[in-house]
Amino acid sequence: MSRVIELYDFLHTIPELGFEEHKTAAFLAGELQKAGFTVTERVGDTTGVIGVYDSGIDGPTLALRADIDALGHMIDGNLCAMHTCGHDAHSAMVLSAAEELIKTGSVQKGKLKIIFQPAEELGTGAPAMIKAGAIADVDIILGAHLRPIEELTIKQSTPALYHAASQRLKGLFHGVPAHGARPHLGVNVIDAAVAAITAVNAIHLNPNESYSIKATRFTCDSGVTNAIPAEASVIWDVRSELNSTMEKLIEKAKAAIEAGAATVGATVEVTNYQGIPAAEYSDEMVDLLAEAITAAYGAGGLHAPVKTAGGEDFHFYSKEKPSIKAGYFGLGCDLMPGLHHPDMKFNKDSLEKGKEIFLYAAKKILQG
Ligand SMILES: [Zn+2]
Ligand SMILES: [Zn+2]
After folding, report:
1. Which of 7, 38, 116, 348 is the least buried, fewest Cβ under 10 Å from its Cβ?
2. What is the distance in A from the centroid of ligand 2 to the CA of 21?
3. Which of 211, 175, 177 is CA-nearest to residue 193?
4. What is the pLDDT of residue 87?
5. What pLDDT is stored for residue 354 in this prediction?
6. For residue 122, how far is the Cα from the chain centroid?
7. Exposed, middle or buried, 31 (CB in 10 Å: 0-12/13-18/19+)?
8. How much distance in Å is there from the Cα of 248 to the middle of ligand 1?
């Protein structure tokens, strides 16, 4: 059996939730150590693992990043950790490529850094790694994800998978309570929130920029129905293909929410949370990954860039360090019925191709 499939098969048996990947992290750290990497465990006091192999010769620092967490699914009323997003596959591809790079003496200049990142599904794993300094010395970072069969078959991969930016906005409205018989003495936050929702719905950006913004939760209950309520909260889910569109959208939404609240004399505190930036790739890395895919499959296997409305916290790395050259490929693997589905299955033969793509790109960057 090939090494990548052997690694996958083992990791698949120990799925763990975000920031609880203790067995997974211990296994990955042990294998990196055996392969000759200098390993740091509990990066930033999390379950993150980093392995570094320094050639001792001047050159770029290349990071290969794999996420390591599983998802929590309710099965027969019990919360079960399951690898239904393929992060076990990502870790197996990156680890097997890392081992082979050392074994074949391919790190001839610069440094190879392996980042096993926890908690991608929570969207907070990458920020935790960044905070711990994981990418301070990194010049290039590469990652990958399995793709569902609707996007790619096992015969192809894409050199650029473009995830959208997503963000939640919360408006906490403050009014003035009053008796229901004397509404003129109060400020009704339901009126304020409705005015804000309507104002947000009237935002228009260039329709050529793909985006959406909509209220997804409205909470207001003062406990009684014969009084003017004075506290309410509204959450908006915001999506956009580009980070620049997201910035415009958030700015306009904040202004609209404040203006809406002001129409009835209420105040509002607006906060952003649970944001994930959109993909931004280096052209050089997209070209290199295209070359790697062509080498792995032949010309027929190179698929055009793919856009997805899904998010990936990998994009914090280039957002927080714009000088980093980021690349991220989507691996065709006949995945069905879909990611995050409790019955998710894919063809494991694809893992060999994923490993080859990482290997090819890393050799181009680190060979003398
Ligand atoms: Zn996922
Ligand atoms: Zn995933």
Report:
1. 38
2. 15
3. 175
4. 98
5. 98
6. 8
7. buried
8. 27
Question: Does the fold of domain 165-275 match that of domain 3-164+278-366?
Answer: no
Percent of the chain residues topping a pLDDT of 70: 100
Domain boundaries, the chain: 3-164+278-366, 165-275
* Residues 365, 108: Cα–Cα separation, whole Å: 9
What's the CATH number for 3-164+278-366? 3.40.630.10
Determine the CATH number of domain 165-275: 3.30.70.360
* Alpha carbon of 117 to ligand 1 centroid (Å): 13
Say which ligand is closest to the CA of 145.
2
Position 273 pLDDT exceeds 90: no
CA of 120 to the centre of ligand 1 (A): 7
User: What's CA 329's distance to the chain center, in Å?
Assistant: 13
| pLDDT for res 274 | 75
In whole angstroms, what is the distance from residue 112 CA to residue 110 CA? Answer: 7
Q: 88 C-alpha to center of ligand 2: Å?
A: 10
Tell me the sheet residues that pair with 302: 157
Give the list of residues 6+ apart from residue 278 with CB closer than 8 angstroms, or none. Answer: 162, 163, 164, 165, 240, 241, 242, 243, 246, 315
Compute, in angstroms, the gap from residue 145 CA to the centroid of ligand 2.
6
Residue 320 tokens read as 């927080």
Whether 315 and 280 have beta carbons less than 8 Å apart is answered as yes
